[in-house]
Each structure stands twice: as structure tokens, then as C-alpha cells.
Write a structure and sequence with these properties.
The protein has a single domain, classed as 6-pyruvoyl tetrahydropterin synthase/QueD (Tetrahydropterin Synthase, Chain A, 2-Layer Sandwich). The protein has four helices and six strands; from the N terminus they run ββαβαβαββα. Strands 4-3-1-2-5-6 form a six-stranded mixed β-sheet, sandwiched between helices. The radius of gyration is 17 Å and the shape is elongated.
């Protein structure tokens, strides 16, 4: 398998973990960054696993989800308040199953693989995503999408 990686950074957003017993239950923020690892069993016509210049749509999705947004868990007991503040224009709300770095890594993995499958028909895939909240802390989601397994022998 051929592999490569691409990093995306500069996504300042905030969130909270409402079920956390410590300070993570309070609204706090980071400038998130993501690194995606790509694989392919064959290269494209340019000799690339993934043409990085073709990832503008992914950067646009990342910007929409994470750039100056407020992330709320779908089970946050204050969700109706966050929705009200969104309606008032006080915050730009995004609701996720898990707003933590682990959930964010999985979300990015899903987005990038949807994009690659639609565009490349399964020739390339993302097998790992690192979601970083700062220089010390990161989380990962690693898996080959089911359609990529068929291309690996």
C-alpha cells in the first residue's frame, strides 16, 4: 500500500464535556488541527496517493464544522440553551455525537472517506486521522473503510 499524509490547522472552536466531573465540563476552546493519513494500492495518473490540491472540499468542510464554532454533544442537557444562543446569533452551533478530540477524529475520518469514495471510486482512502487540541494532546481514529479493504491484497 502507498501512503501519504496531509495536515490541516487553524480551526479555533470551543466545546464542553457536560458529563465530566472536572473542569472539562466548562466551555473551553482550542485551535484544532487534523492530520489525515491516506492509502492506495495504486497511484493516480500523476503518481499520487491523493492529490493534495484536490482536498479543497475537505478544508471547506473542516472550516464549516470547526472554525469559530461552538460544538455541543447531542446529549448535552443544555442543548436547548445552546440552540437558543445560536438563534440569537451569540454562537455558531454544531451538534455532534462526541465533541471531544476522539469524536472529532472519527467525524473527520467519515467526511474524508465519503469525499474520496465519491471522487476516486475507492482507489484511495483515509486510514487514520489525528485530531490535535494543542501540542501536548491528540486523539486518533484508525480504520480502513470497508470498501478499501477490497482494494488491499
Amino acid at each position: 500500500m502507498y501512503t501519504c499524509s496531509k495536515s490541516f490547522d487553524g480551526f479555533p472552536c470551543c466545546h464542553r464535556q457536560p458529563n465530566h466531573g472536572g473542569h472539562c465540563r466548562f466551555v473551553h476552546g482550542y485551535s484544532r488541527s487534523f492530520t489525515c493519513w491516506f492509502g492506495a494500492s495504486e497511484l493516480d495518473a500523476n503518481g499520487f496517493v491523493v492529490d493534495f490540491s484536490s482536498l479543497k472540499e475537505l478544508r471547506k468542510q473542516l472550516r464549516h464544522q470547526f472554525d469559530h464554532t461552538f460544538l455541543a454533544n447531542s446529549d448535552d442537557p443544555l442543548l436547548s440553551e445552546w440552540e437558543r444562543l445560536h438563534e440569537l446569533g451569540a454562537l455558531d452551533l454544531r451538534v455532534m455525537g462526541n465533541v471531544g478530540m476522539e469524536g472529532s477524529a472519527h467525524w473527520v475520518w467519515q467526511q474524508v472517506n465519503t469525499l474520496l469514495q465519491e471522487r476516486d471510486g475507492g482507489r484511495s482512502w483515509c486510514w487514520k486521522v489525528e485530531a490535535r487540541e494543542n501540542s501536548s494532546n491528540a486523539a486518533y481514529w484508525e480504520a480502513k473503510p470497508s470498501w478499501a479493504v477490497d482494494h488491499c491484497s
